[in-house]
C-alpha cells in the first residue's frame, strides 16, 4: 500500500462513486478498478460493492478507510516536519477560506505573500464559513479565513470589520422598506441572524422578498438594474457608483457589522511556513488590500 492507494480509499468513501473518484484523482475508471482489485487481493477481502445508492463499503473496507485517514495524516505530518527543517520556509500551506473572501481578497493576498516566500505553495479549499471552521478544527487546513462570529477552541485573529448597507438603485425612504421588493441572497447563517434582528427591531411587517439569488455579487447586479433593494456588505460596494446606500443601524445606535477572522491552532505555529504567513497577515493592512 502506497500513498496513492490510501488516497483512493479515502476519496472513494467520500464520493461513493467510481466515476467521480476517477475524475477527482485524474485516473481512468479501468485503472481505478484495477487498483481497487489489487488492494482487495492484498488484504484478501472485499472492500466495497456497487449498489443502487452508489459504492457501499464492507466492514473490512470501512476499517481500511479509517486507516487511510490516519496514514494520510501521518504522511502529511512527516512531509511538513521534513520541510520545516529547511532554513527557509518551504512546502504547501493549506488554507481554507469562505467563498466571498476567496473571490475578493485571497488572490491578492497570496500574490503579495508569494513575492516574499517563493518556496511556499498553496492548497486552497473554499466553502461556507461554518465549513471552514470545521476544516481548521480537524487540522485539514493550517489557516482558515472566516466571515462572521463562530465559536472556536483554537486561536483567532480579527482581520477587519465591515458595515452593512441598505442598497438600492434609487434613494429609498426608510419607512417604505416593508412595501418594496427585496432581493435576497444566500448568506452565512450568522449574517442572516444579524439582519433578521435588525429588521425585527425596526419593522412589525415581514419583508417582501421579490427575488432570491445564490450569490451576493448577483444580488448586487440585480440592485443595479433596479429590481429591488438589498442588504449588502461594505466590501462589495467599493467603487460602486450606481447604488444608493444607507448604513444599517440598530436602535441602540450601534451599526450592523460583520467581522472577518483568521482561525488557526497554536501548535501549527511550529511550522515555519505557517509562522511566516501569520506574521505576514499581522503586517497586512486590509483597508489598502480592498477597501
UniProtKB/TrEMBL annotation:
Residues 1-58 form the HTH lysR-type domain. CDD domains: PBP2_LTTR_substrate. This is LysR substrate-binding protein. PROSITE patterns: HTH_LYSR. Coiled coil: none annotated. InterPro entries: LysR_HTH_N (IPR000847), LysR_subst-bd (IPR005119), WH-like_DNA-bd_sf (IPR036388), WH_DNA-bd_sf (IPR036390). It comes from the Bacteria. Pfam families: HTH_1, LysR_substrate.
Amino acid at each position: 500500500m502506497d500513498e496513492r492507494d490510501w488516497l483512493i480509499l479515502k476519496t472513494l468513501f467520500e464520493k461513493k462513486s467510481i466515476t467521480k473518484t476517477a475524475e477527482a484523482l485524474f485516473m481512468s475508471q479501468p485503472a481505478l478498478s484495477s487498483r481497487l482489485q489489487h488492494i482487495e487481493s492484498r488484504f484478501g477481502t472485499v472492500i466495497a460493492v456497487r449498489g443502487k445508492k452508489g459504492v457501499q463499503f464492507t466492514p473490512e473496507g470501512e476499517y481500511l478507510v479509517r486507516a487511510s485517514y490516519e496514514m494520510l495524516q501521518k504522511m502529511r505530518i512527516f512531509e511538513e516536519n521534513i520541510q520545516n527543517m529547511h532554513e527557509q520556509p518551504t512546502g504547501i500551506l493549506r488554507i481554507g477560506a469562505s467563498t466571498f473572501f476567496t473571490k475578493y481578497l485571497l488572490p491578492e493576498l497570496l500574490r503579495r505573500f508569494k513575492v516574499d516566500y517563493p518556496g511556499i505553495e498553496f492548497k486552497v479549499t473554499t466553502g461556507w464559513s461554518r465549513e471552514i471552521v470545521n476544516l481548521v478544527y480537524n487540522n485539514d487546513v493550517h489557516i482558515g479565513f472566516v466571515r462572521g462570529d463562530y465559536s472556536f477552541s483554537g486561536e483567532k485573529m480579527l482581520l477587519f470589520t465591515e458595515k452593512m448597507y441598505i442598497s438600492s438603485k434609487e434613494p429609498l425612504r426608510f419607512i417604505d422598506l416593508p412595501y418594496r421588493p427585496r432581493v435576497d441572497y444566500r448568506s452565512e447563517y450568522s449574517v442572516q441572524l444579524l439582519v433578521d434582528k435588525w429588521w425585527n427591531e425596526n419593522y412589525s411587517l415581514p419583508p417582501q422578498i421579490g427575488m432570491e439569488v445564490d450569490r451576493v455579487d448577483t444580488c448586487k447586479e440585480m440592485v443595479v438594474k433596479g429590481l429591488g433593494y438589498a442588504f449588502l456588505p461594505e466590501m462589495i460596494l467599493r467603487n460602486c457608483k450606481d447604488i444608493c446606500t444607507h448604513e444599517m443601524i440598530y436602535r441602540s445606535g450601534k451599526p450592523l457589522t460583520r467581522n472577518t477572522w483568521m482561525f488557526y491552532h497554536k501548535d501549527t505555529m511550529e511550522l515555519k511556513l505557517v509562522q511566516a504567513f501569520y506574521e505576514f497577515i499581522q503586517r497586512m493592512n486590509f483597508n489598502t488590500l480592498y477597501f
